[in-house]
Design goal:
With 156 residues, the protein is of the alpha+beta class. It folds into two domains: 31 residues; 120 residues, Immunoglobulin-like (Sandwich). It has one helix and ten strands, in the order H-E-E-E-E-E-E-E-E-E-E. Strand 5 and strand 6 form a beta hairpin. The longest helix has 30 residues.
Protein backbone atom coordinates (compact mmCIF):
# COMPACT_ATOMS: atom_id res chain seq x y z
CA UNK A 1 0.00 0.00 0.00
CA UNK A 2 2.86 2.42 0.73
CA UNK A 3 4.32 1.96 -2.74
CA UNK A 4 0.96 2.80 -4.33
CA UNK A 5 0.63 5.96 -2.21
CA UNK A 6 4.15 7.02 -3.12
CA UNK A 7 3.42 6.54 -6.84
CA UNK A 8 0.24 8.62 -6.50
CA UNK A 9 2.12 11.44 -4.76
CA UNK A 10 4.90 11.44 -7.36
CA UNK A 11 2.34 11.33 -10.21
CA UNK A 12 0.37 14.21 -8.69
CA UNK A 13 3.56 16.22 -8.28
CA UNK A 14 4.60 15.61 -11.91
CA UNK A 15 1.13 16.59 -13.20
CA UNK A 16 1.24 19.79 -11.13
CA UNK A 17 4.71 20.62 -12.50
CA UNK A 18 3.54 20.08 -16.10
CA UNK A 19 0.52 22.32 -15.52
CA UNK A 20 2.73 25.01 -14.01
CA UNK A 21 5.23 24.79 -16.90
CA UNK A 22 2.39 25.07 -19.43
CA UNK A 23 0.91 28.09 -17.65
CA UNK A 24 4.34 29.76 -17.47
CA UNK A 25 4.96 29.14 -21.19
CA UNK A 26 1.57 30.64 -22.11
CA UNK A 27 2.16 33.73 -19.96
CA UNK A 28 5.67 34.19 -21.40
CA UNK A 29 4.29 33.94 -24.94
CA UNK A 30 1.68 36.62 -24.12
CA UNK A 31 4.40 38.98 -22.87
CA UNK A 32 6.40 38.54 -26.07
CA UNK A 33 3.48 39.24 -28.40
CA UNK A 34 3.41 42.53 -30.25
CA UNK A 35 0.24 44.20 -28.98
CA UNK A 36 0.51 47.47 -30.92
CA UNK A 37 2.40 48.69 -33.98
CA UNK A 38 2.29 52.49 -33.98
CA UNK A 39 2.30 54.45 -37.24
CA UNK A 40 5.45 56.55 -37.82
CA UNK A 41 5.25 60.35 -37.97
CA UNK A 42 7.18 61.18 -41.14
CA UNK A 43 6.81 64.91 -40.47
CA UNK A 44 9.11 64.79 -37.42
CA UNK A 45 12.83 65.01 -38.23
CA UNK A 46 15.10 63.22 -35.73
CA UNK A 47 18.01 65.07 -37.35
CA UNK A 48 16.64 68.32 -35.87
CA UNK A 49 14.66 67.42 -32.76
CA UNK A 50 13.30 64.68 -30.51
CA UNK A 51 10.20 62.97 -31.92
CA UNK A 52 7.13 61.75 -30.04
CA UNK A 53 4.58 59.13 -31.06
CA UNK A 54 1.18 58.69 -29.42
CA UNK A 55 0.36 55.19 -28.18
CA UNK A 56 -3.17 54.01 -29.16
CA UNK A 57 -4.42 53.26 -25.61
CA UNK A 58 -2.89 56.39 -24.09
CA UNK A 59 0.56 57.66 -23.37
CA UNK A 60 3.45 58.35 -25.69
CA UNK A 61 7.05 57.50 -26.47
CA UNK A 62 9.78 60.03 -27.31
CA UNK A 63 13.05 59.23 -29.09
CA UNK A 64 16.04 61.56 -29.18
CA UNK A 65 19.40 60.81 -30.81
CA UNK A 66 22.42 63.07 -30.27
CA UNK A 67 24.59 64.56 -31.59
CA UNK A 68 22.67 66.11 -34.43
CA UNK A 69 22.95 65.58 -37.29
CA UNK A 70 23.03 61.85 -36.52
CA UNK A 71 26.48 60.60 -37.51
CA UNK A 72 27.41 57.42 -39.35
CA UNK A 73 30.28 55.23 -38.13
CA UNK A 74 30.45 57.21 -34.88
CA UNK A 75 28.84 56.57 -31.51
CA UNK A 76 25.70 58.50 -30.66
CA UNK A 77 23.49 58.73 -27.57
CA UNK A 78 19.97 57.29 -27.62
CA UNK A 79 17.39 58.68 -25.20
CA UNK A 80 13.88 57.18 -24.93
CA UNK A 81 11.17 58.47 -22.61
CA UNK A 82 7.77 56.89 -22.10
CA UNK A 83 4.82 58.75 -20.64
CA UNK A 84 1.90 56.85 -19.07
CA UNK A 85 3.43 53.54 -20.20
CA UNK A 86 4.90 51.08 -17.71
CA UNK A 87 7.97 49.99 -19.68
CA UNK A 88 9.88 47.05 -18.23
CA UNK A 89 12.56 47.12 -20.92
CA UNK A 90 13.29 48.98 -24.15
CA UNK A 91 15.41 48.05 -27.14
CA UNK A 92 15.83 49.75 -30.48
CA UNK A 93 16.50 48.22 -33.88
CA UNK A 94 17.98 50.33 -36.68
CA UNK A 95 17.32 49.13 -40.22
CA UNK A 96 17.72 50.62 -43.66
CA UNK A 97 14.36 51.14 -45.35
CA UNK A 98 15.68 50.67 -48.89
CA UNK A 99 18.74 48.49 -48.30
CA UNK A 100 19.49 45.68 -45.85
CA UNK A 101 22.26 46.96 -43.61
CA UNK A 102 22.38 43.89 -41.34
CA UNK A 103 21.24 43.57 -37.73
CA UNK A 104 21.76 46.63 -35.55
CA UNK A 105 19.99 46.34 -32.19
CA UNK A 106 20.66 48.18 -28.94
CA UNK A 107 19.27 47.37 -25.48
CA UNK A 108 18.70 50.54 -23.50
CA UNK A 109 19.33 50.84 -19.77
CA UNK A 110 16.57 51.99 -17.44
CA UNK A 111 17.44 55.14 -15.50
CA UNK A 112 16.36 56.05 -11.99
CA UNK A 113 13.65 58.30 -13.43
CA UNK A 114 10.64 56.15 -14.33
CA UNK A 115 10.14 55.72 -18.07
CA UNK A 116 13.62 57.03 -18.97
CA UNK A 117 16.03 54.77 -20.90
CA UNK A 118 19.51 55.48 -22.31
CA UNK A 119 21.91 53.72 -24.66
CA UNK A 120 24.59 54.16 -27.30
CA UNK A 121 24.40 53.20 -30.93
CA UNK A 122 26.25 53.42 -34.22
CA UNK A 123 25.09 53.31 -37.82
CA UNK A 124 27.17 51.75 -40.59
CA UNK A 125 28.17 53.85 -43.56
CA UNK A 126 26.21 53.29 -46.76
CA UNK A 127 27.58 53.40 -50.31
CA UNK A 128 24.91 55.98 -51.06
CA UNK A 129 25.33 59.59 -49.94
CA UNK A 130 21.88 59.53 -48.35
CA UNK A 131 20.24 56.66 -46.46
CA UNK A 132 16.75 56.40 -44.97
CA UNK A 133 16.59 54.53 -41.68
CA UNK A 134 13.81 53.20 -39.50
CA UNK A 135 14.47 53.04 -35.77
CA UNK A 136 11.98 50.58 -34.26
CA UNK A 137 11.64 51.16 -30.52
CA UNK A 138 10.44 47.96 -28.80
CA UNK A 139 8.72 48.71 -25.48
CA UNK A 140 8.25 45.66 -23.25
CA UNK A 141 5.18 45.99 -20.99
CA UNK A 142 3.27 43.55 -18.79
CA UNK A 143 0.71 43.11 -21.57
CA UNK A 144 3.23 42.60 -24.41
CA UNK A 145 5.42 44.62 -26.77
CA UNK A 146 4.64 48.03 -28.29
CA UNK A 147 6.58 48.92 -31.46
CA UNK A 148 7.16 52.61 -32.21
CA UNK A 149 8.91 53.26 -35.57
CA UNK A 150 10.82 56.49 -36.22
CA UNK A 151 12.05 57.40 -39.73
CA UNK A 152 15.13 59.55 -40.42
CA UNK A 153 17.71 60.15 -43.15
CA UNK A 154 21.49 60.29 -42.79
CA UNK A 155 23.99 61.79 -45.22
CA UNK A 156 27.76 61.50 -45.40
Amino acid sequence: MERRTLLMVISSFLIAMLLFAGYYKIELAKKNNIIAQIEPDKSCDLQKTACTLKIPNGGDVTLSIEPRPIPVVKNFKINVNTNEVEAQAISIDFKGTTMNMGPNSVKLKAQSQSGHFLGKGMLPVCVRNSMEWQADVYIQTNEGILVAPFIFVTTH
